[in-house]
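Quick one:
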Amino acid sequence: MPIIYALISRHEQVLAEYTNASGNFSQYSRVLLAKIDGQDEKKSFMAKDVGYAFHYEVKDGLTYLCLADLDFDRIPCFRFLGAIRQRFLAVYGDRWQNANAYSFNNDFAGNIQKQMDHFNTESNSKIDQVHENLDQVRGVMVENIEKVLDRGEHLELLVKKSEDLNQTSFDFKTKSLTLRNQMWWQKVKMTLMIVFICAFVLYIVLAMACGGFNLKKC
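Output:
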């Protein structure tokens, strides 16, 4: 069967366990428990030499571990661990913190068996496959949405740059008009000054030719 052994432990102290097959599963699990550092995590360990895979979840000081066939998908295994975790905490609360080894074995082994039978059924495996496909589709959708949002961000940057370019063009046009006006006024002033100088020189010449500034002889 896919899942054949499971336990709940506080560090290396087993509080409850169950198996529906014969074998030295407890021995293998004790070796693995000694290597778990107690930090919250989910991991799988493939023991190909014995033909099984260990899947475990550490959560808030408790370790939930199961042993399954190598070809059995890990997704239902972790759902199984999540189910027995929720059931265990709902039944015992925080009583596990001061409990002795195997304190809950007689009462909770039946719960482990029910969850194991449930997740080992063929129909549930098909449901898990559907969930896995949905998760994959959801992942693709999220990735596509992120790409769309990323493109939207790039478009916003392009719009901002376009606005900045338009503003720069407007400023350049304004400064060009101002400079042109200034140059036009300078040209007008220069023309008036030249006309005034020419008129003054002509007046001097006429005054010299006509016997004085009153231009009496002209």
